[in-house]
Amino acid sequence: MAGTSRGVTGRRSTHVGLPPFQRFLDEHREAVYRFLVASAGPGEAEDCFQETFLSALRAYPRLRDGSNLRGWVMTIAHRKALDAHRARRRRADPVEEVPERPAAEPGEPEPALWRAVRALPDGQRGAILLRFVADLPYADIAASLGCSEEAARQRVREGLKRLKERVG
Amino acid sequence: MNARDFERKMRGPRGGAFDDRSAEAAGRLVEEAASAGLLDVVYAEVDSPFGPLLVAATRRGLVQLAYPDEDRDEVLSGLAAKVSPRVLESPAGLDEIRKRLDAYFDRRVRDFDLDIDYSLTRGFVRKVLRATARIPYGQLSTYRLVAARAGSPRASRAAGNALGSNPIPIVVPCHRVIHSTGGLGGYTGGLERKEFLLKLEGALD
Known about the structure:
heterodimer, A: 168 residues, mainly alpha, Butyryl-CoA Dehydrogenase, subunit A, domain 3, globular, B: 205 residues, alpha/beta, Double Stranded RNA Binding Domain, Arc Repressor Mutant, subunit A, 2 domains, four-stranded mixed beta sheet
């Protein structure tokens, strides 16, 4: 009955287990913001944050399984960061090439490292950030990236290797 | 830099480094959500002589008002399960309701004139509450009379229970309903609150 009935009872049963959106937001906002600063850059984190939680809010009542909200919201955040990357690439914005900030931004103590992370190919960057910043298990990273767990591990390994070559 | 140092740096700042910035961003989200038409339930705290009331509204109107001793998380979880999980805190979204409540407690108005969303109730309970909402300021009614107006003249005990589960006390004035013998009856928020409200309205000395 759940999902097919548009009656009150049917609608209700799809909400079981979902916390009020405000609680979901309060629990994950800090981690999502941190993830977006790392993945989209400090300048774009705010816009990506709004888009992430607006998308989440839009889809929230239809969410069937509330047991992995962290993985769910990080997947959305990852996609928004990817969109921001692609938009910047289309603009041919040289922002990542020029060391435009001589001093570190607050909350970004390793600007060179993060610039190098953001310069990684999409797949490696996503895997690295979901693993080390979002703290997701490989099963969730694989689901977010639409690849196998083994492929997700491989991307992390390759990404780390490349970063070590670049940053030291 | 060895592998472990590198991974530690990769893990980035911890311990609430983005707490302030994400809190501000979350505050702005409510406005964005409002313009996108995505706010199903908004809530805020409203000061009152009883302490902070938790007040919640939908697009249709005021849906819940909870006294300070009610468990806040439980109230919000109930709204998420029964109305919509799109529940967000929005002090600005409750401004109108806050103004009306302030005016009521200052005895500046006798009528809230607020839209009410009865969707937390159904059946007989809803009928009883609708009947109760029509009792004028400062006047008393009885459980028996309210039951009759809800269509079941002999159900005064059930009417009492219905009023005991009123999700919108004060505004749906269940405090104006007493026993036909003249006894004050009960009140979920505590009998002293019932007396306070009736004295405020001049219905009780």
